[in-house]
Amino acid sequence: MTVAILLGIAGGIGVAVLISGLLPQRPALATALAQLHRPRSSRLDGPQDASLLVRVVGQPLARTGLAARLASRVGADLRVTGRRPDEVLAKQALCGLVGLLWAPATVSLMALGGVSTSLILPLWCSLALGLAGAFVPLLSLRVAAAERRRAFRHAFSCYLDLVAVRLAGGAGVESALSSSAQAGQGWAFAEIRQALAEARLMGEPPWTGLARLGTELGVSELGELAASVTLAGDEGARVRGSIAAKARSIRTRGLADAESAAQSASERMSLPIVLLMLGFVVFLGYPAVMQVLTGL
């Protein structure tokens, strides 16, 4: 019976994948036109070779329109981590399949050992584990995106300090932005240089390029800086004051985040000690309680 259930599940998944490959979803015209100007997620870390799992599972799933839905939900996370939608879809399919088959595999091993169990509980466990496994890659993506944004904010505050120093030395706004971006290394400074170059080629102010980069990466500080500098106008002193204030606010926020993370880690460290003390109290008090109960 268990073997028949496993074969039915595998056959259903195979038929669903076959139908999705034969009848791919036709993208809308607006989506197709938007893909011509979409930022490439692999620009952060360079081109990457697709693995066998991505080629076999992820790319067929991406052609069904799931990639567009995933990009609409976590597009900024994909952009900041440099991951492609087909990679996330392949991991989701693999984790979901593992969670779906975990309970039937356990029941089969128990049946081989002579232990008979009902099929209702494993069925519900398979559904729950399958759904949970499908969401694990999304959770991992969000955690990685949060780490990348934290690193970007740290580099961006250093960049703003360099811009303020060059403005104080008499440099122009665009010159200070460009020269400060060339002074740093790493993916954050590379993104800033790329955003400034795109704005210059499109004939836009540099703040517009930084605001667009902030929208793509999900870093609100870039848009806030663009808005404050736009209000400040073209006067050097006011622009320098806005940049220095934004750099201080980013550093203050980073310090507050670091302190909250340290406090959370301290609280997590105290939990095992509390559980150990609770077990020790139960170990010492159980004989006395049982003695009192049996004496009654």
What does this structure look like?
The protein is mainly α. It folds into 2 domains: 2-14 and 48-145, no CATH class; 151-253. It has helices spanning 2-22, 29-34, 52-81, 85-112, 120-168, 173-182, 187-201, 206-217, 220-232, 236-295. Helix 4 (85-112) runs antiparallel to helix 5 (120-168) and helix 5 (120-168) packs across helix 6. The chain starts with a helix and ends with a helix. Residues 40-47 have low confidence and may be disordered.
Task: Quickly list its features.
single chain, 296 residues, mainly alpha, 2 domains, 10 helices, 82% helix, flat
Give a quick summary of the entry:
This protein is mainly α and 296 residues long.
What average pLDDT do the residues reach?
78
**Weakly predicted, low-confidence segments:** 40-47
Q: Residue share in helices?
A: over 70%
Total separate domains: 2
Please outline the major beta sheet: none
Shape: flat
Strand content: under 5%
Class from secondary-structure proportions: mainly alpha
Strand and helix order: HHHHHHHHHH
Measure the end-to-end span: 52 Å
Q: How many alpha or pi helices?
A: 10
| Radius of gyration, CA atoms, in whole angstroms | 27 Å
Tell me how many strands there are. Answer: 0
